[in-house]
Amino acid sequence: MEVTIIKGFVQFAQKIVKSTSDILPFPISLIDENGYIIGSTNPDRIGTIHPPSKEALQKNTVLIYDEEKTKNMNNVLPGVVIPLTFENKAVGVLGIIGPPEQVKPYAYLVKSYVEMMWQDAIHRQTKDLRLKAAETFAQYVLLNDTHNQQTLEQYCDMLQISYSSKRFCIVIDIGNALLKNTNIQNKIGDFKAELLEATHESFQCMRDSLCTFLNSEKITLLNSVKSEEAYVDTLQSFEKQSLKLMTVLRSFQIKHTAIAIGSLSQTIADIHQSFQEANSLIQYGEVLNISPKIYSYHNWKMLLGLLPEKIHTTYKDKLGYRLLPLLQDKSAAELAKTFITYCEANMNTSKAAKKLFIHRNTLIYRLQKIEEITSLDTKSFEHCMLLYLGLRKQFS
Questions:
Q1: Topology adopted by domain 311-392
Q2: Is 196 helix (H, G, I), strand (E, B) or coil?
Q3: Cα angle: 341, vertex 347, 350; to 5 degrees
Q4: Least CB-packed of 102, 103, 130, 227 within 10 Å?
């Protein structure tokens, strides 16, 4: 942590010097714990040694240097030096250049200002590093089918999440919303953090959960639960929580969002399966045109829509071969659309005809033609289910 602090100090030193110089009538320097000037009103001094700084750090007190005291000292100008502290530890020095009696009254005020700016910069840097670490971890654990257990455990320790907790993955697809917000590119980190916080709050996540961007288009939430019963409760409240998040995202001008939830994984090592499931649900949901774009296997409409997709290929091939005479008929598309609409109207000919904007007798004629070609009874639920499964995927 100490190395990170010093590195952050070096990175932001000159920026802090410039900001402080705008409000202070005296030149200043910032010196690291080894006595090197890392920020100065006079850039030529950067990288040079400032001998009194180590003494100020050792004594942890303000030291005053007048003309008489500095005349035989190398690279030391009249003024005061005062230690800078971070988390109650002196780790750097502030030098204010000028007649000691004039600059001393400013010493503690400027010290507080510099420390405040410095600590804010370090906290931001630490936060950014954690966000980047979380993104890297999500990419590793979600996009790979196999993982190194030691690597996973190290990531979990670093991110302070449990390796062994039961988890499921929620995927939030926000499209190109980040790319469209190029006008706030300099604050993109803050924007992403706000979106993650909104996601975390909407789904009432436990502390052990991990919410992060997978890429510029997708937010992933690796949520932990204590039991399978808790996961079932989550499924039941998923649509309500997703609608809440969509409302919040619209306040960020993110209007096109799709959200899906995957199955429960026993440990984080298996969470990629939950992610793949959620990701597939978004793709299927788009094809099935389900609205709102909230997808889970807890949704009957989703289950019904996926049924033709999930039938074994061998069985679908045999069914397709049996329906070949219908599929080869010159009116196949029209007949299929009529039949699918008939099924989705609960096998009610009047409702189906109304949906198709045709006369009821026309619909009955088409159904009779289907019966002639297939030898199936369109009044039989079992026969209709079989034919529906055979036609739904090809003519959806």
A1: Arc Repressor Mutant, subunit A (1.10.10)
A2: helix
A3: 80
A4: 227
Both structure tokens of 56: 């100020």
Q: How far is residue 155's CA from residue 297's CA, in Å, rounded to a whole number? A: 30
The per-residue pLDDT for range 278-330, each reduced to its tens digit, is 999 999 999 888 889 999 988 888 888 788 777 888 888 888 889 999 999 99
User: pLDDT by residue (tens digit) across 8-38?
Assistant: 456 678 888 888 888 889 999 999 988 999 9
Architecture label for domain 2-125: 2-Layer Sandwich (3.30)
Q: Domain residues of the chain, as ranges?
A: 2-125, 143-307, 311-392
CA–CA separation, 177 and 248 (whole Å): 14
Cis bond before residue 78 (omega within 30° of 0): no
Q: In the sheet that 294-295 helps form, which strands lie side by side, from edge to edge?
A: 210-213, 218-225, 166-173, 258-261, 294-295
Tokens of 169: 């993955």
Q: What is the CA radius of gyration of the chain?
A: 33
Length of the chain: 396
pTM: 0.70
| The CATH number of domain 143-307, selected from 1.10.220.10, 3.40.250.10, 3.30.70.270, 3.50.50.60 | 3.30.70.270
Beta bridge partners of 260: 171, 295
- From first CA to last CA, the distance across the chain in angstroms is 58
Listed in sequence order, the residues at least 6 apart from 380 whose beta carbon sits closer than 8 Å to its beta carbon are none
| Cα→Cα distances 385→143, 333, 342, 388, 389, Å | 37, 18, 11, 5, 6
List, for residues 32-82, the tens digit of each pLDDT value. Answer: 988 999 999 999 999 999 988 988 988 888 999 999 899 889 889 999 999
